[in-house]
Amino acid sequence: MALSGYYARVNGEAAHTLPRRTTRTRRTGRHRSPDRLSVPSAAPILVLGVPVEESAASVKIAESIASVAGTLCPGADIRAGFAGDGAAGLGSVLASAVRERADVPAEVCPFAAVVVPLAIAPDPGRDVTLAGVVAAAGPAVTLTSHLGPHPVLAAALHDRLAEAGLVQVRRFSGLSLVATSVGLLIGAVGGEPGLRGAETVAVLLTARLGIPVAPALLDDPATVERGIALLREAGASRFVLAPYVIGHEISARDLAAVAASLEADCAQPIGAHPSIGQLVTMRYGMALLQPRPA
Questions:
Q1: What is the pLDDT of residues 222-253, one digit of tens each?
Q2: pLDDT tens digit sequence for 110-143
C-alpha cells in the first residue's frame, strides 16, 4: 500500500510523497533536516527496541533518541521497550500497542507497532531474542533492520572525536596540512557485519579527516591488532579510538581497557547523537511503506 494513499485515507488530504518538504525555516548546522515525516494519530506506534535491560543510563539514551525522532516525526507515538520482563519490557510494550490499535482497520494503519532496534550492527544473541519477542506479538508488529551502516554515522563519529578535541572540527579540505602521525581506529561490535560497517565508516572518515583510519572489533583482539598494524604502515605513531557503538553494546570498563591497551585516546560512544534519531525516523518511514503480512 502506497504511503501517499495511507495519508489520504487517514487525513482526508491530498496524497503526497515521502519525504515531505516543509515551508519552515531550515535549521542551520550539520544536522539540519528540512524534510520531516508527519503522521496521523492512528499511525503505528514507533517502539525503540533497546537490547539491554531498563536502567538510568539506558532510559536516558532512549529518551534522548525519542526526543530527536519526535522532532523529525511529529505526531508519532514513540515508546521504548527494554530487554527483560516488566512494564517497560519490550513484550509488555508491544502487547499494549496491539491492544490500543486493535480497532484501527489494517488499510488505515498497516501495523500496530513498528520496532526499530537501537543497534548499529547485528548481534546474533540479542537479535534472536528481539525477533522472538516481536514474533510473539503477532503480525500486527513489524521489526525493521539495524541502524547502520549509514553515512550520517561517520559524521556522528566525527562530532564525538571533535568534542573530545581529538580531531579537527572542520572537514579536510584537501589544502590543509594534517598530521598523519595520528591514526584513527574505528571500534565496532557485532562480528563480521559490524566489521564491514566499520570498514565503510573508515573509508568515509579517511576522506573527511585526511588521516589514516582502520576498522576493528572491540571484542576481537585479532582485528584490533590488525587495525593498529594498518595504521602503523600508514605512518601513524599515535592512536585514537572511535567507538562505533551507541553505548550499551560494550561496558565503559571494557572500552577503557581496550583504549588503555593501545595507549590510545578514546572518544565517547555515539550515544544519543541526533543522527541516531534521524536513522530511527528513516527506518520507521520505510516500514510504513510495507504491507502487513497475511
A1: 999 999 999 999 999 999 999 999 999 999 99
A2: 899 999 999 999 888 899 999 999 999 999 999 9
